[in-house]
Design goal:
2% strand, 2 domains, 377 residues, single chain
Length: 377
């Protein structure tokens, strides 16, 4: 028997991540159960119990590690070793313990394995035989009434139960990693959009006429250049008016200011923040250690800044009929607010995909897996 199981270990911690705390707690629980199961195990089970100790030691090392940039590998190492230790424990534990764990194993298998999975089907068959689940048809064999018969069935089907439990644990780990991967994609996209927004703001500040956000409404031969922060005096558009006449490009050059692009992006950013706050009403709290809802909310910020800027550029280019000449700076900023909030049209699909991924991890069962497959298709 391993030294860890003979003498025991303290729980350890505290550590700086929630999943690390959970790993230490579960490792101590499995260690205690293994020490108890060793009293009833067969002599040939010593190798398996020793392997349990090694797996728990590896999980503790991953939880107590200090390399923050290797969090993904540490999480996978901790979860996979804990799952392996529990599978080995189920292999050598007394039949009474296995029978008591059967409802929980059945629930995990139903959450993470497809109904067409043969391991799930075999486990459900065993569960019906011992009366853990209801028979699916009238002709199904009735569950044995005596505890001895149920224990005999469980002991006989031990490997079937352990195999299904291990498969469910592996599927749960893959779902966790899928959430983390999706979260990382959102983070990288948010960073790239932020860099793009900053680049556009710097370009607009260095050369206001490079990205002009000014409009020139004209009426009765008189025009006024209107920019987000300033507007020009009326000038004549009639070339024959002498010194009072002015070219629109010259008027834009005199009126546009370096802060125009920055102000529009800030307005779009504020509108996106409001949209993110409004979207919170549809977000349930998540116990997953990846912060996916936060990553979705952060993505909206730079997206709102960019859509505000691009929307005004489309209006200035005549893409929106009837809205090519705004009259005041307030109107320009108001439309920047609208376009910033309109990023919700683009990020709504991201919100839906995030909810689908989280639903699958939370144990959405067959419906969550069906939605995930439909989205991937």
């Amino acid at each position: 028997m391993s030294e860890a199981l003979m003498f025991g270990n303290p729980v350890g911690g505290p550590v700086w991540r929630a999943w690390r705390e959970g790993t230490l707690t579960r490792a101590k629980e499995l260690e205690s159960l293994s020490s108890w199961a060793a009293q009833y195990a067969q002599p040939q089970a010593g190798t398996l119990l020793e392997a349990v100790g090694y797996h728990l030691a590896a999980a503790r090392d991953a939880a107590l590690g200090t390399r923050r940039f290797a969090d993904k590998a540490a999480l996978e190492r901790a979860m996979s070793n804990l799952d392996a230790a529990e599978a080995l424990l189920l292999t050598v534990a007394p039949a009474q313990y296995l029978l008591g764990r059967l409802p929980g194993i059945l629930n995990d298998v139903a959450r993470h394995l497809s109904p067409l999975d043969s391991r799930r089907q075999q486990l459900e068959r065993v569960a019906r035989r011992v009366g853990v689940s209801e028979p699916q048809c009238r002709g199904a064999q009735a569950a044995p009434s005596s505890l001895e018969e149920r224990l005999a069935i469980v002991d006989q089907e031990r490997l079937t139960i352990v195999t299904a439990a291990r498969a469910a644990a592996s599927a749960a780990l893959r779902e966790q990693l899928r959430v983390r991967s999706f979260r990382n994609v959102l983070i990288v996209t948010s960073v790239l959009l932020t860099v793009l927004a900053i680049t556009l703001a710097v370009a607009g500040a260095r050369s206001p006429t490079t990205i002009p956000l000014c409009f020139a409404p004209e009426e009765a031969g008189q025009a006024v250049v209107v920019c987000p922060t300033e507007q020009s005096a009326p000038y004549s558009t009639d070339r024959g008016a002498g010194p009072l006449a002015k070219d629109v490009d010259d008027a834009v050059k005199d009126t546009a200011k370096p802060v125009d692009v920055v102000l529009v992006e800030l307005i779009g950013l504020a509108a996106a923040a409001v949209a993110a706050a409004a979207a919170i009403r549809g977000i349930r709290g998540s116990s997953e250690p990846h912060g996916l809802p936060v990553a979705v909310a952060v993505l909206k910020m730079p997206t709102g800044a960019i859509t505000a800027l691009l929307g005004l550029l489309l209006m200035r280019g005549g893409f929106v009929p009837g809205l090519t000449a705004l009259d005041t700076s307030a109107q320009i900023l108001a439309w920047a607010l609208v376009f910033g909030y309109a990023q919700q049209l683009f990020t709504r699909l991201v919100d839906q995909q995030a909810q689908t991924v989280l639903q699958a991890v939370r144990g959405g069962g067959d419906r969550g897996r069906a939605r995930t497959s439909e989205t991937n298709d």
